[in-house]
Amino acid sequence: MTAPPKQRRKPPLGIVARPGSSLLNKTGSWGILTPVFDCSKCKGCNTCEIICPEGCIRHLEKKQYEADIEFCKGCGLCAAACPADAIAMVSKQS
Amino acid sequence: MRKMIEGSRAVAEAVGLCRPGVISAYPITPQTHIVEELSQMVADGEIDAEYVRVESEHSAASVCLGAVAAGSRAYSATTSQGLLLMIEVLYNIAGMRLPMVITGVNRAVSAPLNIWNDQQDTLAARDTGWIQLYAESSQECLDMHIQAYKIAEDDRVLLPVMVCMDGFILTHTYESVDMPTQEEVDRFLPPFDPLFKLDPADPVSLGAYAGPELYHEVRYIMHRDCLGAVEVVKEVAREFGEAFGRWDGDLIQPYRCDDAQTVLVAMGSVVGTLKEWADRHRARAEKVGVLKLRCYRPFPRDELREALCGVGNVVVLEKAVSMGAYGVLGAELRAALYGLPGAPAVASVVVGLGGRDVTMSTVDEACCRALAGETDFFAGLNAELLEER
Question: pTM for the whole thing?
Answer without folding.
Answer: 0.93
